[in-house]
């Protein structure tokens, strides 16, 4: 029987997406961590917490607040892990936030990161669809405005692309275009509604 640590490592091989972040001494950094399938099956939250150790903290669904704003991803809990390699991540059934890495970010960027990871729970591995899920949620729930959209673009544009992530500037333009469609009520945004509003409505 595989231990939680072994299962986590096997899942990591299947899931880890690395990208360089400019301005960080040239060191390759993980954009995010999303389980993408494979024979290991992905860890349960109990296995993940066992692997993380005492630094990990499970926050039950409905209890997480980001800068005083209550957030949820259906009934999925969130693990706060200050030693996580990236800002956020997702495995089937739970989300991960690195409280250390997101600490200096604006509220709207933090909410984007959380919502992007939530999006993976409903739309799967597509990074673009997870980005758009987050933007639609921000507009629908009222926490995303034009200033926040530019903050997200500033944040994401630093990231280089990799095998699964488009380059940051490209992601920015895709999200910015979708944001404009949403706030202007264009037909394109309306036709996307069924794709990008999957998931919890509150």
UniProtKB/TrEMBL annotation:
It comes from the Bacteria. Keywords: Signal. Residues 1-30 form the signal peptide. This is Uncharacterized protein.
């Amino acid at each position: 029987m595989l231990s939680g640590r072994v299962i986590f490592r096997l899942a990591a091989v299947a899931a880890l997406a690395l990208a360089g972040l400019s301005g960080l001494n040239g060191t390759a950094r993980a954009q995010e961590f999303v389980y993408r399938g494979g024979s290991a099956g992905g860890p349960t939250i109990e296995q993940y917490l066992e692997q993380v150790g005492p630094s990990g903290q499970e926050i039950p669904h409905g209890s997480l607040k980001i800068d005083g704003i209550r957030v949820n991803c259906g009934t999925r809990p969130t693990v706060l892990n200050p030693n996580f390699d990236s800002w956020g991540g997702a495995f089937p059934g739970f989300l991960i936030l690195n409280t250390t890495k997101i600490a200096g970010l604006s509220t709207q960027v933090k909410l984007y990161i959380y919502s992007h990871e939530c999006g993976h729970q409903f739309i799967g591995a597509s990074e673009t669809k997870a980005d758009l899920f987050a933007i639609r949620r921000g507009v629908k729930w009222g926490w995303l405005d034009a200033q926040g959209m530019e903050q997200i673009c500033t944040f994401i544009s630093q990231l280089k692309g990799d095998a699964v992530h488009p380059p940051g500037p490209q992601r920015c333009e895709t999200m910015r275009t979708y944001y404009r469609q949403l706030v202007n009520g264009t037909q394109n945004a309306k036709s996307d509604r069924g794709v990008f509003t999957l998931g919890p409505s509150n």
